[in-house]
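URGENT: need a sanity check before tomorrow's submission.

F., can you look over the MioC family flavoprotein record below? I want to be sure the sequence and structure line up before it goes out.
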Amino acid sequence: MTDITLISGSTLGSAEYVAEHLAEKLDEAGFSTQTLHGPQFEELETSGIWLIVSSTHGAGDLPDNLQPLFDTINEQRPDLSAVHYGAVGIGSREYDTFCGAIEKLDTLLTECGAKRVGSLLKVNILDHDIPEDPAEIWVGSWKNLLQDL
Ligand SMILES: Cc1cc2nc3c(=O)[nH]c(=O)nc-3n(C[C@H](O)[C@H](O)[C@H](O)COP(=O)(O)O)c2cc1C
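Structure tokens as predicted:
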């Protein structure tokens, strides 16, 4: 069945745990997954399905472990037209730049031709002590959209 590469960007682990939880749910649903925390661009297949889970730091900035991937894609502008992706942001509404990192990633991937599947989920940690919960509900619908690809 479909291979899904989960890509997490995290500083203290929240987004990383969410990515691992979603991988578990997708595995249970019969997908095969691999989860990469802060991968380099060279580690990624430029085709297939990516599921990106990223928190936001600084003022709308990417976590340090995902910044190199962003920078490489931004500089090289690879053809990502064979990539479909899902996007999950973890952030806090107390910042004006709520979930700024996933928005930047979403914009960049689209500019490189990748196609987003489903809505961009933004989890506000002020509403959700356990960000895995809304992410799990979201992935329940998201996985069904993959059947139409
Ligand atoms: C110094 C600092 C800056 C932050 N800046 C933002 C921000 O600009 N936008 C946002 O939505 N959340 C921001 N957050 C909230 C984090 O994204 C949130 O705490 C998240 O759960 C961290 O997840 P992580 O452990 O995976 O990095 C910030 C948190 C800290 C500590």
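My own read: The first strand starts at residue 3 and ends at 9. The mean pLDDT is 97. If you see anything odd, call me.
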